[in-house]
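Bumping with the actual sequence this time:
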Amino acid sequence: MPDVVDLSHVIAHGTVTYPGLPGPVIGDHLSREASRERYAPGYEFQIGRIEMVSNTGTYLDTPFHRFPDGHDLAGLDPARVAAVPGVVVDASGGPAEIGPAALDGVAVAGAAVLFRTGWDRHWATDRYGEQGHPYLAAATASALAGAGAAVVGIDSVNIDGTATGERPVHTALLAAGVPIVEHLCNLDAIGGRAFTFFAVPPAVSGMGTFPVRALAVLTA
């Protein structure tokens, strides 16, 4: 079996992903105890229930998240997010704003371009959502869209700066049809090895964002 690196945060009851958004409520729709009344002796099942906002855990944005006429999760081409050749851009230790120079020498076309900032170390703490988090410059987003990136991800609270209400990175990438994966983690575990990237959401009509199980399948 291939080596697989899980790049997703665990979603648990009450987990706060983004400041101001509620954590999920996870419980039973049908408990094991209650199921015993429905099935033959010796058989029991659990049917779970979750109430959550779509921006929970490690999630993928499609154009509908930003644009009312953009395609939603059901319209996403799976080829953009399944078995895509991946590249990790090391943006750790630099300024919060990641400029286009970070892409020098990076083969972007048709790739899953994942920015490793190390911000995931603050996950589940108050620091994670505070100002000063790493994000892409608008020029970096334009370069990625222009070069034909398949999907772009980051291990930070937002791929855009959040000091103002402007979101130029979401705008540039999603306008070009490039999906975005935010709140990645464990990118350092890839360790420079070749990999393919998977971040496939369910095909939900009328919704632009949903959690994914983001994976790096190491190929060398």
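The tokens above came from a reply further down the thread. Helices lie at 32-35, 138-147, 168-175.
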